[in-house]
Design brief:
Layout: E1 2-4, H1 6-13, H2 17-24, H3 28-35, H4 44-54, H5 58-61, E2 62-64, E3 68-74, E4 77-84, E5 87-99, E6 119-125, H6 131-139, H7 143-164, E7 171-180, E8 183-192
Parallel strand pairs: 6-7
Antiparallel strand pairs: 1-2, 3-4, 4-5, 5-6, 7-8
Organism: Ligilactobacillus murinus
InterPro entries: Cro/C1-type_HTH, Lambda_DNA-bd_dom_sf
Protein name: Transcriptional regulator
């Protein structure tokens, strides 16, 4: 995985996209896609201009992690395929959903205890024996890549929930439990289906 450090470089210098555009002539669209890491490709000339502008070399412009991650949608979860060199690891994250209409124990609940949720939703690594393998990979990721993995699982979990509730139009307040790296990230989100 490869990401640009453009957003960090600009923040460290108190610059905005418009400032970099004025100084380099690189289009604002290109700069925004690089800063947000949404770019599918970038020209060498663009990288050369940016490295020159910031007074850095290419290794300071990019952050690299030796993993390629692909997500495969499943009805009841996600498979995260992580490739590094010739090694391929598939990690299955299972989706769970509990309605507040069900008889819930305190162990079933998470999120803000002051809120009443319509649904408690979890996506967790399915095979406990896989935690060690996943931990090794996850802990070797740069913090930005760790955040990206968690955000992608969160987004895909919301998609699974929406797909399963298309016939029930409305707004739902949901608490999400994303199990990554033996840690659970609790979030809450109001979802319109």
């Amino acid at each position: 995985m490869l990401k640009s450090n453009l957003a960090v470089l600009m923040a460290e210098r108190g610059l905005k996209i418009a400032d970099v555009y004025e100084q380099t002539g690189i289009s604002k669209t290109t700069l925004m896609s690089l800063a947000d890491n949404k770019s599918k490709g970038v020209q060498f000339e663009t990288i050369d201009k940016l490295c020159n502008f910031f007074g850095i070399d290419v290794s300071q412009f990019f952050v690299y992690s030796p993993y390629l991650i692909k997500y495969i949608d499943k009805v009841d979860g996600q498979v995260m395929r992580i490739t590094s060199g010739g090694e391929v690891n598939n990690f299955y994250f299972r989706y769970f959903e509990i309605s507040s209409d069900e008889d819930l124990t305190d162990d079933d609940k998470f999120g803000d205890p002051q809120k009443e949720y319509d649904y408690y939703i979890s996506i967790m690594l399915d095979t406990l024996g896989e935690y060690d393998n996943f931990d090794k990979i996850y802990n070797n990721l740069n913090i930005w890549f760790q955040k990206n993995v968690t955000e992608e699982l969160f987004k895909r979990t919301i998609d699974i929930f929406k797909e399963g509730h298309q016939s029930k139009k409305g707004k739902y307040l949901c608490a999400f439990n994303i199990g990554v790296n033996r840690k659970c990230v609790y979030r809450e989100k109001e979802i319109q289906v």
